[in-house]
Queue: 2 jobs
Job 1
Amino acid sequence: MKKNLLIAYVGIAMLLVSCSKEQISHHALDAVPQNPLPKSEIDQFVYNQLEKTGQFYWNSTDDRMLWSAAVRSDSILSIGYQPAGEKDLNNRLHLIDFQDNTWRKVRNDLIELIVAETNKKWPSHNFTARDLMPLGDEDALPFMLIKVWDEALVTQLRRMPEVRYLDAVGYLMEDMEVRLRSGSGCDAEPNVINPSDYTTISPNAKVPWNFYNMNIPGAWNTSTGRGVTIAIIDTGTSPNQPKLGSQFNSGASSGRTLTRTGTYVSSWWPWSPPDGPNDLCGHGTQMAGLAAAPRSNTGTTLGVAYNANLLAIRAVEDVVILGSSETNGVTNALRIAADRSDVRVISMSIGSILGSGQIEDAVRYAFNRGKLIIAAAGTSTSFTTWVGVVFPAWMNECVAVTGVKEGTPLVKCDVCHVGSKVEFVAPMQRRNSSMTSLTLAMYSDTPTTIGGSSAATATTAGIATLIWATNPSQTRTQVLEKMRRAASLYPSRNSSFGFGFIDASKAVNSNL
């Protein structure tokens, strides 16, 4: 598995770097009795919390477990901070200048405290802030990423009024990637497609079968997404898929913009820049295809909002948010999307079973800037039977979406999570087979297939974009209300499927 291989390579490289302070620090730690809890005990606590509450945050652990989780990973803690006595921060994240002297002092004081206490514990190494902050000193939002090795310091920090949260951001549960990984995951190879699974429309574009279940083609008589930008935060887009490159404007799609960028850093070298926008997985290419692929003349599948602008951000390696680098990548991607006034809809077909304070900060920052954030409820195999909606879709600021099989009554797709946090569903699987939706492959005009809550999320984000394009002055609240009123179960809300699937034509023609 790629991440396990990466960890192995990092371990080998660390053995070869004989004079770094990083290595010395671990030797120092080895010489001091620490007794962190075993991973099995930490993992079991996480499972218990998920079964009990449906969510997990590191603030539910005691000091020893949090410290143990940190030192059993990369020792990096994500620390959310604020001036003592700060009120209502969540609703004001977009209004505060975190470079203000008051906020800078809190941040600097915490860094100085951690550096001083670390050097007090290991006085021979003379650690600096730069040594303890290998991922850099991001300060656009009120959190920091810093190494903490001392259990007593964890206890001290947790009791300070200036500290909002401490997360063991790099902790990886045993087999977490295997258990949570999407049934489709990193696979976007072209497939042999049955003609019954699509309809060809002018100028020669394929409409996936499930678009008709949501009356998306009917909505195109009113809106094609023109003038609205949708942000896809995922694994990037393939440079070898011209429909998300040089042919983004082709066929019946014209006059729109495409921005490709990246926030994910795969290298373990702290000074490395982000990898860039290129998709090495396939998932982001598929999601961008579902939401905004052009209505081309070469036989490819089109996206729901085929005349919308697209901001595609590579924030993760694959569909599961794991470790410090991916958490940082998602955080920075959300901030980029939030700061662009043309972006109205943010689609996130990625997730984790571990809550993250800094991603919550970024989600709320984007939400407070008026963005409609649509997130996947979860797609997996072994977790499906007992874990509900995953993070960040479980947040109130996100609209959680999952996939169902075609037809009624509603039945979840084979690998989809459901739960009370689900707002909408989208048909993503044939009733009596495993056939899923069609979208762009990594490099070919021949479509590939994709299902699960990931595909449902990107498709629903496309519908939201169609609605917003009918009147760009609409608010998020107005767009969301149109989605609800055009949904199959409205005004009722099902405990597993929310308001049901959206009639896109009804939604774009609403007079609300």
Job 2
Amino acid sequence: MRFSSESYLRKAAFILSVLYILSYILLVLKRLNYPFELEWIEGAVVDHCRWILSGRGLYVPPSINFVPFNYPPLYFYVSALAMKIFGVGFFAPRFVSFISSLGCMGIIYFWVRYETKDRFLSFVTVGLFAAAYKYTGAWYDIARADSLQMFFIIAALYSARRLSISKGAVISAVLLVTSFYIKQSALLIALSLGIYYFFRSRKAFLIFSGIFLSFAIGAFLILYWKSNGWFYYYAVLIPQQHELVRSKIILFWADPLMRGIAPMFILVIAYLMLGKRKKIIKDGFAFFLLITVGCILIAFLTMIHTVAYLNNLIPVVAVIIVFSMISLRFLFGLAVRKGGNWNSFLWLILILQFINFVYIPTQQLPSAEDRSAGEKFINLLKGFDGDVLVRDHGYYSVLAGKRSFAQRMAVKDVMKNPELEFKGIKPAKILEEDIVKAISERKFSAVIMDSHNGVPYDEDLVEAYYKFSGKVFHSPESFYPITGYRTRPNFLYDKSK
């Protein structure tokens, strides 16, 4: 039996999809129960959930005991609920993210099937999303908010396309409000969809904007009232203090954006150019163009800051994957009419995208050395009498049976603008005084830092009251997170020496 090149490439796309999906699921099953951080903020996420489970409000005045991150609360509350079922630890918030990522894959499948009427291509689309796992930071399954946010974004966009114009406006507005209270960046998707509805149907626009604004403002007022205004400080004022990296304004467009997903952009551009007079493109052009621009803006406006990572590419990658597969279905139909080997060429572009996402699965797993080093570190903490300030990884103290304290990234966000006033006070000054007081009064048996700097508890302050006892880890590679910022608790300052 003879097989055309198109047949071989089609089979290759199927096999690659299966391999990427299985690889992702197997990786998650191995990572879910890992007892230490896969990414350096995970422990602080667990601490946020523990704080909620203790019955305290999430948004409180900053202190050395606790400083919330500058995110809305929904992911933390969902994860805290999961902890009531699965127990306190990394598993629950990671499980929330994993289930959310599977939900994204399910919606992507049904969305592409609705748009293309092609089940095979729909499955390949899911494979592409799974393949983008490492490209977007190996982030789908970690204890961070991105996958849950993406689930609601994808669900909102699918609803807008799949349902009647009015019903879609209602459902998508509710889902995007939910996404907004997971991460603020969803506002850009809401703006993009609002513009689409404005030109498509003024009635739908009024429904969408009315519901979104009513729910968003209503939730904001409740959170403002319940937190005595501190929700506004953390979720609105603090994000405005993030520093820009000017070089990224240009570099972003070449790397990481185009470097990773250029083949999909080629398919989308070909679709727009060759199908401009077809009904299929007139019907969906405004929608996909606007939400693609919105997702690119999410990535751009976040990744030009110092604290940004590849996880911010998840929305644009998900939407471009869907858009490119719809483009591919249209281009297949056009290629049949043109004749020749155009279909094979199109499949080859898709295969190139799969190849562009290639990664080594075992490199996304902590090693036995990492686990052993983590266990030794927890035993080290247990050996100290009293509290230990693990400046960047407070939850490790909890694993050692001790108290947790504010994580450095949250502290740094508050400290970026020491002159920022709120409610007649300067929160950064109050937080600094609290930290300096605790260090100068030697309230900790030891202080462990990832680096010597980190205002206000940097090397100069800590060494005035504690003696540097050396590095915790002697191996140059062990106990670093698998993804995100590469850091570990390594500099030990001991009160007793």
